[in-house]
């Protein structure tokens, strides 16, 4: 995959790029220290995944299939092949190429290459150990917070370092890949959108006929992921009875009452978690899920709060009240005011 735009390592943000009907304009491949994605032929990738063998299929969705493959050098990779009649068209493919080429961050999946032979559209990227799946395996409290911190850092890079800001739009547990040490990496940028430069507190735009799309929509999605981590449950579980399938809807009554926070905790933890950190984690989650997007916190504040929880999670709870985390002492007075009243705020069961 070619680099559609590159940026100097001395800059804080990425260079501005333009997408218009599948075309792109920028300088390519000149960023020192950057890995320029490799262009593969379809034959090379077919050989790498051994000719579409079902045994190598590791994922499937509306966009297409993802196969496990092995390159000539022996590197094990994930190869995403788009359906010709799938939901992701050429422009969405270019968006994903763009995002993966430009957005270099520890908590983003690394793009290795791409293929555009004829009507073929394939992406080659690093293969994680697995995606985060609530309830699939027992995770310690520290590991859960580690995943939350990494996901938030990856999102912070999109919202605050990229220029223009990037709206991820598809943050969910299935798109958070984990390595052997449970370090999370955001993947699947096919639905990501470039947001207009402006007030990063609340950016809104109309995109592709989908209605209002804001950075605060990503904050809601992050709140859902953190709630999945806390509870060990899926955001949507169709195996449950109607009325019990939506995790946010079922959790609202607990999110609004501090005395009930403990009832949200993943039972697989068997009580091994710091109660004080749980209270703060649930409070952060509740703020992310607020019905009014403008009331949701900034991603930078969320990162500070989660990093603090990660540093405190292995310490005993203090026998005193009124302990505050940096989230509440941030420059965002609005966040402090809303947090103090979060028990009276309405939470949304759907992202806006």
UniProtKB/TrEMBL annotation:
<dbReference type="InterPro" id="IPR017441">
    <property type="entry name" value="Protein_kinase_ATP_BS"/>
</dbReference>
<keyword id="KW-0449">Lipoprotein</keyword>
<protein>
    <recommendedName>
        <fullName>non-specific serine/threonine protein kinase</fullName>
        <ecNumber>2.7.11.1</ecNumber>
    </recommendedName>
</protein>
<keyword id="KW-0723">Serine/threonine-protein kinase</keyword>
<feature type="binding site">
    <location>
        <position position="80"/>
    </location>
    <ligand>
        <name>ATP</name>
    </ligand>
</feature>
<feature type="domain" description="Protein kinase">
    <location>
        <begin position="52"/>
        <end position="309"/>
    </location>
</feature>
<dbReference type="InterPro" id="IPR000719">
    <property type="entry name" value="Prot_kinase_dom"/>
</dbReference>
<dbReference type="Pfam" id="PF00069">
    <property type="entry name" value="Pkinase"/>
</dbReference>
<dbReference type="GO" id="GO:0005524">
    <property type="term" value="F:ATP binding"/>
</dbReference>
<dbReference type="InterPro" id="IPR008271">
    <property type="entry name" value="Ser/Thr_kinase_AS"/>
</dbReference>
<keyword id="KW-0547">Nucleotide-binding</keyword>
<dbReference type="InterPro" id="IPR011009">
    <property type="entry name" value="Kinase-like_dom_sf"/>
</dbReference>
<keyword id="KW-0808">Transferase</keyword>
<keyword id="KW-0067">ATP-binding</keyword>
<comment type="similarity">
    <text>Belongs to the protein kinase superfamily.</text>
</comment>
<keyword id="KW-0472">Membrane</keyword>
<dbReference type="GO" id="GO:0005886">
    <property type="term" value="C:plasma membrane"/>
</dbReference>
<dbReference type="GO" id="GO:0004674">
    <property type="term" value="F:protein serine/threonine kinase activity"/>
</dbReference>
<keyword id="KW-0418">Kinase</keyword>
<keyword id="KW-1003">Cell membrane</keyword>
């Amino acid at each position: 995959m070619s680099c559609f735009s590159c940026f100097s390592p001395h800059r804080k943000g990425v260079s501005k790029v333009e997408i218009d009907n599948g075309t792109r304009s920028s300088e390519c491949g000149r960023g020192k220290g950057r890995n320029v994605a490799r262009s593969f032929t379809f034959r090379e990738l077919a050989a790498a995944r051994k000719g579409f063998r079902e045994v190598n299929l590791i994922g499937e969705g509306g966009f297409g299939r993802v196969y496990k493959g092995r390159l000539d050098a022996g590197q094990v990779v994930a190869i995403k092949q788009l359906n010709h009649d799938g939901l992701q068209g050429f422009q969405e493919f270019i968006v994903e190429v763009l995002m993966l080429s430009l957005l270099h961050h520890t908590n983003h999946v690394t793009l290795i290459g791409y293929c555009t032979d004829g009507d073929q559209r394939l992406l080659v990227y690093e293969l994680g150990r697995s995606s985060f799946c609530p309830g699939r395996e027992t995770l310690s409290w520290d590991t859960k917070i580690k995943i939350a911190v990494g996901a938030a850092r990856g999102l912070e890079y999109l919202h605050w370092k990229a220029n223009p800001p990037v709206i991820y739009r598809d943050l969910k547990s299935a798109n958070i890949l984990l390595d052997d040490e449970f370090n999370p990496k955001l993947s699947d940028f096919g639905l990501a959108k470039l947001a207009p430069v402006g007030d990063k507190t609340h950016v809104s735009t109309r995109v592709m006929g989908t209605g209002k799309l804001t950075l605060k929509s990503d904050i809601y999605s992050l709140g859902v992921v953190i709630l999945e981590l806390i509870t060990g449950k899926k955001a949507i579980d169709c195996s449950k009875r109607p009325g019990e399938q939506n995790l946010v809807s079922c959790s609202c009554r607990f999110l609004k009452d501090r005395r009930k926070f403990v009832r949200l905790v993943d039972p697989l933890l068997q009580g091994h978690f710091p109660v004080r950190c749980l209270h703060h984690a649930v409070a952060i989650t509740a703020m992310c899920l607020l019905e009014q997007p403008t009331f949701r916190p900034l991603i930078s504040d969320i990162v500070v709060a989660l990093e603090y929880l990660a540093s405190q999670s292995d310490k005993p709870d203090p026998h005193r009240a009124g302990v505050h985390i940096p989230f509440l002492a941030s420059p965002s007075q609005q966040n402090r005011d809303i947090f103090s009243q979060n028990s009276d705020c309405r939470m949304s069961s759907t992202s806006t």
